[in-house]
């Protein structure tokens, strides 16, 4: 991660913030309360306006865990949606 410019991380933080805020809003609209809380928390954690300062090692771990979580959540949300339509 040392090779990436600071602007890249700022842009990435903004993209994650917008994505998680949007998913939280969609979860709110569909009354999926646990997803509202989870993605709302992630939006706060990654917001680019009031930055939460942690050391690089902690952020690397958080980024890995959240990245895996977001990939898994796509499949879980699709499955939940499919089940609610039936």
From TrEMBL:
Pfam families found in the cross-reference section: DUF6804 (PF20619)
Source species, domain of life: Bacteria
Keywords, alphabetical: Membrane, Transmembrane, Transmembrane helix
Listed transmembrane segments: 6-28, 35-52, 58-77
UniProt-recorded name of the protein: DUF2127 domain-containing protein
């Amino acid at each position: 991660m040392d090779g990436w410019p600071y602007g890249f991380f700022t842009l990435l933080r903004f993209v994650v913030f917008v994505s998680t805020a949007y998913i939280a809003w969609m979860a709110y609209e569909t009354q999926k309360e646990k997803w509202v809380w989870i993605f709302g928390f992630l939006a706060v954690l990654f917001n680019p306006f009031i930055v939460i300062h942690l050391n690089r090692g902690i952020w690397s771990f958080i980024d890995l865990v959240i990245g895996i979580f977001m990939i898994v959540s796509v499949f879980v949300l699709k499955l939940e949606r499919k089940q609610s339509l039936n």
